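In response to reviewer comment 3 from the previous cycle, which asked for concrete evidence that the modeling workflow produces usable outputs, we include below a single protein chain processed end to end. The sequence was submitted unchanged, and the resulting structure tokens are shown without manual editing.
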Amino acid sequence: MTPRSTDPAGKIEPKPDPERELAEARAEEARAEKSGGSRDETAPEDEKGPRPGASIPEIELDLARTREEFAATLDAIEDKLSVPAHARRLKASVKRRYSDDPKPVVAAAAAGAAGLAAIVAGVVKVARR
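The workflow returned the following structure tokens.
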């Protein structure tokens, strides 16, 4: 296996750590956002493939960043399509509203029960014909 690169003196550079470089890049982005500056505008984010002249550590950093964005996107899609997650959020919302003021929650539950009873009665009536 050949080394990644060597300097003129013949020393082998240490293997890059993509996670550390990702953390450093994020810290740099955060500093740039705080100072009102913008990111490097020579490399637009919506370009496909590696930047021309990108080094191996830069490509590995881009890969790590892309993997993380992809994982976050998949998590968001999974959360949107998850019925149990929606049920948990609805339950928490109803509990909060009930603890604030129970009257509207009780009224909505009564109206829902009356509507359900009307639907059941209509189905029974149609079935008897």
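Residues 39 and 45 are 10 Å apart (CA to CA). We consider this sufficient to address the reviewer's concern, and the full set will be provided in the supplementary archive.
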